[in-house]
Amino acid sequence: MTPIYLDNNATTACDPAVVAAMLPYFTEQFGNPSSMHSFGNKVGLAIKGARESVQALLGAEHDSEIIFTSCGTESDSTAILSALRAQPERNQIITTVVEHPAILALCEQLEKDGYVVTRLGVDKRGRLDLDAYRAALGPRTAIVSVMWANNETGTLFPVEAMAELAHAAGAQFHTDAVQAVGKLPMDLKRTQIDMLSLSGHKLHAPKGIGVLYLRRGTRFRPFLRGGHQERGRRAGTENTASIVGLGVAAALAKNAIATENSTVRRLRDRLEAGILAQVSNAFVTGDISNRLPNTSNIAFEFIEGEAILLLLNKLGIAASSGSACTSGSLEPSHVMRAMGIPYTAAHGTTRFSLSRFTTEAEIDRVIAAIPPIIAQLRKISPYWGEQGPLANADESFAPQYS
Amino acid sequence: MWDYSDKVREHFFNPRNAGLLDGANAVGDVGSIKCGDALRLMLKVDPASERILDASFQTFGCGSAIASSSALTEMVKGKTLDEALTVSNQDIADFLDGLPPEKMHCSVMGREALQAAVANYRGEAWQDAHAEGALVCKCFAVDSVLIEDVVRANGLTTVEQVSNYTKAGGGCASCHEGIEEILAKVAAERCTAPTAETKRCEPAPVAASAASPAPTARLTNFQRMRKIEETVESIRPMLQRDHGDIEIVEVDGKNIYVNLKGACQGCMLEASTLNGIQTRLVEELGEFVRLLPASMLGRALS
Ligand SMILES: Cc1ncc(COP(=O)(O)O)c(C=O)c1O
């Protein structure tokens, strides 16, 4: 039984072409791009090529706007800390309650340090209220950081319009586009986005390589200081092999955006429809008509997500869950809670995230696998009776909570 | 993915006694909604002998919650109510060959369901007072609520004291920031509490004296032995507080063989205790070592 990988929002497989392009940079092309000899020179040229390829994927005006970092998290931290240091007269950060921990945990720390953090809430479909955003912007707003696409539900935020509003208030605008890059067409030169984070391992490049897009003219303070790499904006000898790999992955991703929005979207919709046609008391979370083409997040009511994942895993199917138990924390996903999804459904949310390598046969196998698993777990759920959910599940089963 | 034992997997994939129980006359419903676990335990009790004739469960929860429920029903069947009440959450975990520290609360839930079911049978009210917090120290499975309670009750101000009282932070040390936050929070409460007689505030907690940095120079054999001994000595008081102890039996290259004594021995946490101490040793020595029970001395290691 060949395994089926539907957890591409967590990480993706390296494209074989990416691996092949990287290999020489572990062996004969080991030079330091800063060196004044031909060992280094060739590597320097390869990095230049990779930079141009990322530039093309993002639609950046200049290749010098591309700064290679070690991961999406580093890009996020760099962007926010830079905006605060470069504009000491401004002390407010505006973000959302559904960001990735790479943003949320940093903001929590900055709040302890005395900065003012405004977190925009979402409605039950995961949408932002732009009026609340307008009201939050002010003369002391240093930076607005809003994700382009949500990693759990795929919900898209109107970052281009939000960047314009931020500029009108004199604030910088950053977007964590780790999940969006390679799935949506982008043309950053025609937007007012100042900074954007991406991460290689979400688009079939290796883990441990990221990019911060920095619009020319945006006031900037480096996070890592040291050598003159990346024009002094990110010191540290380049991760040459991974940068080359990311360059190839970016070129492949640019070509695959059409596939993502046709084939992958069709398979995702087929999966969703196939499951919902057979399983009752299940619903799709997030902004259904405005989300990434590869992501489906389904809440299965009255059962718990980790149990679903373990049973799926036994059948060789990989997905992920917003349940508390899969994270090691005691709380279910902050994204589900922000949307007001009840606990009994939030714990059962299961995310399927496809890639351009996903096949129709795989989707059909998953559609067949899910209903018995859900039925098996509901059979032993205290919220579930012979015919379906207990009429008033909350009253007939009201455990004493500790 | 969690490192579940084979026994946990087995009880999850093939749960025993799942579903409703006909003729149940003792029912215990407990849960922790935030954590996403809820359990209904059903018992059929013979009124004459108070013996549990049959047991079943329904569980909304993760793999280890379902496995713990299944284990619990197997363990109590055939016991009298009083016998069943002696089953501790540790017993449930042991029955399953251990649970990851983050999942110990699943066994606690089992134990509580049992108490609730017995109370239900006897017509008593069952009230659970224990609250559960986020897991702070993963080496020794200590949660934030416990740390906060102990800090408050004993007026603790340093990470070191917290480690001495609760073991939290005594292993890999990566939770020290979290412990410091709890200390700061309690210290802040203390400062603002309107105490008439004194306005003096306790100073904010300082980080425990920075652990001596891992030596970079190679230790001589003698220095190395001394270091191992000192490190283990520094951990002993913590174990002794729990009526346990540790003794070094042999040092053979990278393998350090020890005897865990008293309460530590054979306890479910033995492995995690060894792990925690091993992490400390690795840090102190600046090299990788393996801490093993003396019972493995002489056995070939795979
Ligand atoms: C939205 C989002 N931001 C940031 C990250 C972090 O990226 P990285 O793992 O490269 O640090 C992720 C990946 O999980 C993500 O989904």
TrEMBL record, chain A:
EC number: 2.8.1.7
Keywords: Iron, Iron-sulfur, Metal-binding, Nitrogen fixation, Pyridoxal phosphate, Transferase
Catalytic activity: (sulfur carrier)-H + L-cysteine = (sulfur carrier)-SH + L-alanine
Quaternary structure, from the entry: Homodimer.
Broad enzyme group: transferase
Family to which the UniProt record says this protein belongs: Belongs to the class-V pyridoxal-phosphate-dependent aminotransferase family. NifS/IscS subfamily.
Needed co-factor(s): pyridoxal 5'-phosphate
Listed name of the protein: Cysteine desulfurase
GO biological process, alphabetically ordered: amino acid metabolic process
UniProt KW Cytoplasm keyword: no
Pfam family, one: Aminotran_5
Organism in which the protein naturally occurs: Rhodocyclus tenuis (Rhodospirillum tenue)
InterPro entries the UniProt entry points to: Aminotrans_V_dom, Aminotrans_V_PyrdxlP_BS, Cys_deSase_NifS_bac/arc, Cysteine_dSase, PyrdxlP-dep_Trfase, PyrdxlP-dep_Trfase_major, PyrdxlP-dep_Trfase_small
Aminotransferase class V domain span: 4-366
Gene name of this polypeptide: nifS
Function: Catalyzes the removal of elemental sulfur atoms from cysteine to produce alanine. Seems to participate in the biosynthesis of the nitrogenase metalloclusters by providing the inorganic sulfur required for the Fe-S core formation.
Molecular function as annotated in GO: cysteine desulfurase activity; iron-sulfur cluster binding; metal ion binding; pyridoxal phosphate binding
Superkingdom of this protein's organism: Bacteria
Family annotation (PROSITE patterns): AA_TRANSFER_CLASS_5
Automatic annotation (TrEMBL), chain B:
Biological process according to GO: iron-sulfur cluster assembly
Keyword Transferase tagged: no
BFD-like [2Fe-2S]-binding domain mapped to chain residues: 135-184
Superkingdom of the source species: Bacteria
Record keywords: 2Fe-2S, Iron, Iron-sulfur, Metal-binding, Nitrogen fixation
PANTHER family: IRON-SULFUR CLUSTER ASSEMBLY ENZYME NIFU HOMOLOG
The protein's name in its UniProt record: Nitrogen fixation protein NifU
Protein species of origin: Rhodocyclus tenuis (Rhodospirillum tenue)
Lineage: Bacteria, Pseudomonadati, Pseudomonadota, Betaproteobacteria, Rhodocyclales
